[in-house]
Amino acid sequence: xxxxxxxxxxxxxxxxxxxxxxxxxxxxxxxxxxxxxxxxxxxxxxxxxxxxxxxxxxxxxxxxxxxxxxxxxxxxxxxxxxxxxxxxxxxxxxxxxxxxxxxxxxxxxxxxxxxxxxxxxxxxxxxxxxxxxxxxxxxxxxxxxxxxxxxxxxxxxxxxxxxxxxxxxxxxxxxxxxxxxxxxxxxxxxxxxxxxxxxxxxxxxxxxxxxxxxxxxxxxxxxxxxxxxxxxxxxxxxxxxxxxxxxxxxxxxxxxxxxxxxxxxxxxxxxxxxxxxxxxxxxxxxxxxxxxxxxxxxxxxxxxxxxxxxxxxxxxxxxxxxxxxxxxxxxxxxxxxxxxxxxxxxxxxxxxxxxxxxxxxxxxxxxxxxxxxxxxxxxxxxxxxxxxxxxx
Length: 392
Prior knowledge:
The chain is of the alpha+beta class. Among the domains are: 2-22 and 203-385, Trypsin-like serine proteases (Thrombin, subunit H), CATH 2.40.10.10; 134-199, GMP Synthetase, Chain A, domain 3, CATH 3.30.300. Helices cover 25% and strands 34% of the residues. The strands form five sheets. The chain has a six-stranded antiparallel barrel with strand order 18-19-20-23-22-21. The protein has a five-stranded antiparallel beta sheet with strand order 11-12-15-14-13, covered by helices on one side. A hairpin with a 2-residue loop joins strand 19 and strand 20 (329-337). Helix 2 (34-45) packs across helix 4 (64-88) and helix 3 crosses helix 4. The chain is globular and about 60 Å long. It holds the Pfam family Pro_Al_protease. Belongs to the peptidase S1 family. This is S1 family peptidase.
């Protein structure tokens, strides 16, 4: 069992408390030639644990070589994305990782100068011409953020590949008058596309159950990432001042900061003989993963999550800066993924390769029938509270 192994290994008991997200990718990239791409993939994936590759093979239907190549391509795409955005300038329309060609694709508006297009291509990214700039799409989304949203609207975000603001409407609520009014007002704000989803989002906290959790009262959640002095997790799991206990019900520490709704993040101080290590748990399914940084993976990249309820699952980054409309209120600047989760996974870590991405917030569906899950980006949490990620 994971708990016994960690205790015998002398690792921090803290890590045994909650869900951890094991990431399915740290963007790596393929070169133009197939030969150099294969060698690059092998070199970049050399640090990937066998367990991580196995999880990607299981959840994406890839061979070992394909998983290694994807990790390498995503790592490269992540590294070149900032330079490609700078090269696009005001013509930037968004970017995403294309798993089909293993390249970062950068959208530029049709009025972009030829020199701008050449500059973007020179970074190694592919170019797609679009109608709307990222600034226009962000402005439209910001307008929607100011509108009161009914429960039948589950969220909205910029979709760079579709060059639109995607509004998600729960399938059974499409005919609701409030939903129709929201959609009509949204379309007046700018380029908007409506997508139907199967379920409404919910947070993934849970009542007290067995497993490897941390507890706040009778609520069970999962640890996200170790920071110097404690760990980060989901805001809906506890309020500032609330005490936290571990899987064995011994005292760990206290919520020092928490925000929910509007945001969904928190941090917990650690003491009383507990300590932190830069590890995301594999739960015996895959190897425990070292955390080496927090470089942000692009849309389209693979990503994995580990939680105290459902352990390891992988999927794809679907959208960033999405507003999620929970019953408790809207939460902003979330990242949407195709990874499943269930109650008790809240707060757990999303990781891409060895790079921390965020803490599990909520979603719809489950790990039997599938679904979507959102996380709050870890860099936002670190910046908000002035924390330093504990890295290997």
